Amino acid sequence: MSKTITEKLTDFALNLNFADLPLSVVRKAKECLLDLLGCAIGGTGTEAGQHILSLVAEEDCSGSASVIGAQGRNSCLNAALANGVLGHSLQFDDGSRVAQGHPGTVVIPAILAAGETAEIDGKGLLVSLVVGYEAFIRIGEAINPSHIKRGFHTTGTVGTVAAALAASKAFGLSREQTLDALGLAGSIAGGLMEYAVTGSMSTYLIAGNAARNGVLAALLGKRGFTGPVSIIEGEKGFFRAMSDGQDTEKATLQLGQRFRIEEVYFKPYPSCRHTHAAIEAAIELVKRYGIDFRQVERVVVDTYSLALDECNLPEPTTIAGADSSLQFCVATAIRYGRFTLAERSLENLWDPATRALAQIVALKKNPALDALVPQKRPAMVTIVTKDGASYTYKQDHAKGEPERAMSMEELLGKFTACTSEILSVEKRKKILDLIAILETLDSLEPLMAELRFRSQTHL
Description:
Elements (H helix, E strand, L loop, with lengths): L4 H11 L7 H21 L3 H11 L18 H13 L15 H15 L3 H22 L2 H4 L4 H18 L3 H14 L6 H4 L3 H21 L15 H5 L33 H14 L6 E8 L1 H7 L7 H5 L2 H11 L9 H4 L2 H8 L1 E5 L1 H4 L8 E7 L4 E6 L12 H12 L5 H12 L8 H7 L8
Parallel strand pairs: 1-2
Antiparallel strand pairs: 1-3, 3-4
């Protein structure tokens, strides 16, 4: 009999060694770790981050894993949960346009928790990271766009399976144990996108829960708790239950030969990725033509269906809602000529000038742009000024995609922006230096020790 997708992913994970990773893949894996840690450290200062830190602080701190922004250690499960929430709470974490989700904020918290518990080395962390990203991108691509159109949050659903495979690799599970872990992970995977309508914090919890449940599945698989080996493509499995159509071949095509982690994008703006092309187009128009936001009569954003489904929120009332509001993001970009963490604030959200500008941003579905998805996520912005002048700019690939990759200098600048108000220059340098030499570390402890700092007072 032919192998199931679960078996193929498991065999790939078990057989992958650090020596099998091309230098470009190792470099990308380090960039993913750098990016997520920056986001998670910055996340300790968010409202959602403070809530999750407060929750896990109530638990016994004699565990085996570190929570970013907390002193001492906590349980492996709590660490995965908290670090996943922290990693997603700035809406600044990496993603995959074909998988329609965010692998870093589920995979990396899972392997940090599992890896620290299992006392793996730096090479083991990098290999586990690659394993998790490969599973996330491949399964996500196979099940989308139907999956996300039905209302599922890929980060939570696919992320649970990816986190389980990565954690299983970090724990050193056997083939049978890993198969059970994936079967269990697929059985409990979940996450719904209703947050996009209401602007709630549930999007952050979905990420953390996926990381936690992936580790939970691996821990249970290790103990002989069984799960279905056909969980992904089975008659009542993941694909059929959560989508109206899937391409099963994509889940394992060129597995072990083509490393999909190299396709991951990094965000230059702290908002939903579907807003980024429009943000860039607006910024370009302001810079190119010197447009004063007070002279803007109206704005039209041509975009694709998925962006409209997730980001049509004309009057957001929360930061989470603002993150997914094309109207707010474009208005902010026009007003300031930029979109940074400084503009991702309640002050800007409720600023009368920003809200007035958002009210004149009209969204328009463009079939020509729709046809380019997912190879591109384009947007075209037209700004009409009060003197009757009209300016238009189209952006096919937002900054951060492989086609327009962020440089290491830009990634380091982003890390600094996320962490400068939280960590000292010396501590930031230590973290960066340790990531740079990660494959030489015999233990994760030097890195994790730098992440066990005392965050701001919990809410």
